[in-house]
C-alpha cells in the first residue's frame, strides 16, 4: 500500500478544522438560496461536536463541505492546516479515503453486496490487498458488534444494523475525523441510543466526531453544540451535563416492558417537524 | 485501483445485479449474434452464387443472330455449316463447341407418354454445361458419326417413363422414332446460369432435330457456343469471328447481324451483383448491431441513476474519478466479452443451421468474429462508460442526491 503522510497532524491546540466565512449559495432559476451564510468555525482534535438546527437550517450543507463531499461557494477551509480549496481532485479523494469517515442518515450502503464488502470499500481505494481488507473489515465489524452479520446484504439487516455497517465502513481506514449527518434520524430511539453509545465509545478511544442532529437529547451526547439557523451560527456552547448512552441503555435494560415504554417516552422527545432531508 | 480489484468489483456488481447484467449481456449477445449470422449467411449466399458461375468456367463465348438489329418481319440471316467449320478449324484453344436445337416432342415408353422438350445437343454440350452423368454414359462423337439413335435422360422424365425398370439400355419413342437410353444425368437445381434444360429434358444428338427442323436441307444455326482453354483464346476468337462474319454477311444498316457474347462479361456483371449483395449484407448487419446497441444503451441508461448513487458512495469513501472510470470500463468489457462470446456461438449456430438447410458453404472468418466483438464492445464501452464518466465529474454529494 501507498504510504501518505496523514494530512492531519495537528498539535493539541491547533484546530483540525478551521473554516472562515463559508457561504453556500444554491441558484434555482432566479431564486438564490443561501444555505450557508458566512459560517466560521474551529474544531480541535478529539472533540465531539454536535451541529443542531431545524430542518433546512443548513446542517447537511455544512457537514458536506467540511466532510469534503462538496465545495463552498466562498470562504476558506483549512483541514489539518491545509487549504482544501487548493487540493486536487486526487488529493481530495485521498482525504475522503483516509482522513474522513462519513456516516449518512440514509446509510448509503451499496445494496447488492455483503456487509463485509461494503466495509471493505474504502480499503479498495487505499490499495490494501484482499487479505488485509478482509481482516480490517472484520475488525471494524467487530467494533460495531456485527461480526455475525458480515455476510448479510443490507436488505437483510435492520436499520440499526445497517447504520452500524455504515459506521464500520467509516471507521475501517482509521480516519482522523468521523462525520455523521443525522445518524439516528432513520432509527427508532432505542437503536439510536445504541448508535450514540457506539459514538461515545469511539470518542473515548480517540476519535474526533462531528455530528449533525435536530434532536436535543441526541445532541446532548456530544461535548459541544453548535446552533445553526438560516445558514448562520447562532450559538456555540459546551455541554454541561452530558448524556451517557451506555448508562441510559443499562437502566432501560433493567426495566419491565411497561416501565420501558415510560422510560422511552421520557427519553424520546415528541418527534419534531418531519425531517425529510438526508 | 488495480485491474484485479476492478475485476473483483465488477464481478461483485455483475453478480449483485443479475437481471440488469443478464439483459445487458443479452443485448450484446443479440447484436453480435445477428451480425455474425447475417454476415455468414450473406457470404455463404454470395459464395453459392459465385461457385455456380465458376462451374461453367468463364471461358465460354457464343454467337447468335442479333434480333435487335432486325425489323420484326425482316428475314434473318443464319449461320451455315461452313461457318461452323470455320469456327472449328481456325480458332485456336477451342476445347468444346456446339449448338442447341430444342423441340417439343412426344416421348413414350410402354404406354407412358409425355410431352416434353427434347434438346438436340452435341457431345461437347455435357462438358460445356458441366452436366453430370449419374448412370450409364453420355453420347460421344462416335455415336454422332454413326448416326446412333441414343439419348440421355434427366431424372424426372426418366422416373416418369420408367416406374419400375432400369432405363439404361431400353428403347423409348421420341416423335415415333426409337432411341436407346444410354445415360441418366444428375438432378439440376435452380442454377444461376443454364443451357435452359430442366429435369424433364431428354438429350439427343443435335443432328436428329436439326435435320428435321430444316426439312433435310442444309442445317442453319441461330446460335453457336464455343469454349476455350483460356481468356486469351476467347479474345482471339471474338475478334476473328466478328471479322469473319462481318466480312461474309456484311453489316445491316451499319450494325452487325450477329452478336458475340462472352461469359466472362456476364461474370463481371454477376460480380457487381455479388458486391451489391455484400454491401446489403453489411447494411443489414449494421442495422442489427445498431438495434442491439440501442438495447444495450437502453439498459445502461436506465441503470444510470442507480449507478450514479453508487458512484457517489464510492467517491465519498475515497474513489478517484479514474477509479470510477476504470471500474466501469472493466465492467463493460467483462459484460461485452461474455455477451459477445455467447453471441458468436449463437450467431454461428444459427448461420450453420441456415447453411445446412440451404446447402450453402458455411464459412466463419476470424475477421467477422473480431469485427462483431469489436463493435459490440465499442457500443458497450460507450454506453456503459459515458454515464459513469459524467457521474464521476460530479461532487460526491451531487451524485448521492440522484433519485432512486
Ligand atoms: N442541492 C440543492 N439545491 C438547492 N437548494 C438546496 C440544495 N441542498 C440544500 N438546499 C437548500 O439549502 C438549505 C439547507 O439545506 P440543508 O443543508 O439540507 O438543511 P438541513 O440539513 O439543516 O435540513 C435548504 O433551504 C435547502 O432547501
Ligand atoms: Mg440534513
Structure description:
The complex is a heterodimer of chains A (about 280) and B (about 400). Chain A has helices at about 60-65, 90-100, 115-125, 130-145, 160-170, 190-205, 215-220, 245-255, 255-265, and strands at about 15-30, 30-45, 50, 75-80, 80-85, 100-105, 175-180, 210-215, 225-230, 230-240. Chain A has a 6-stranded mixed sheet with strand order 6-7-8-3-9-10, sandwiched between helices. In chain A, strands 2-1-4-5 form a 4-stranded antiparallel sheet, with helices on one face. Chain A is an alpha/beta fold. In chain A, a hairpin with a 2-residue loop joins β4 (about 75-80) and β5 (about 80-85). In chain A, α5 (about 160-170) runs parallel beside α6. Residues about 1-10 and about 270-278 of chain A have low confidence and may be disordered. Helices cover about 35% and strands about 25% of the residues of chain A. Chain A contains 9 helices and 10 strands. Chain A has one domain (about 15-275): P-loop containing nucleotide triphosphate hydrolases (Rossmann fold), CATH 3.40.50.300. Chain A is globular, with a radius of gyration of 19 Å. By secondary structure, chain B is an alpha+beta fold. Chain B folds into 2 domains: about 5-50 and about 270-400, no CATH class; about 60-265, no CATH class. Helix content of chain B is about 55%, strand content about 20%. Chain B has 13 helices and 13 strands. Chain B has helices at about 5-15, 20-55, 80-90, 125-130, 140-145, 155-160, 205-215, 230-250, 265-300, 305-315, 320-360, 365-390, 395-400; strands at about 60-65, 80, 95-100, 100-110, 110-120, 135, 150-155, 170-175, 175-185, 200-205, 220, 225-230, 260. In chain B, the strands form 3 sheets. In chain B, strands 4-5-10-7-9-8 form a 6-stranded mixed β-barrel. In chain B, strands 3-12-1-13 form a 4-stranded antiparallel sheet. In chain B, strands 2-11 form a two-stranded antiparallel sheet. In chain B, a hairpin with a 2-residue loop joins β4 and β5. The radius of gyration of chain B is 34 Å and the shape is elongated. In chain B, about 40% of the residues are buried. The mean pLDDT of chain B is about 85. The interface of A and B includes residues 98, 121 and 126 of A.
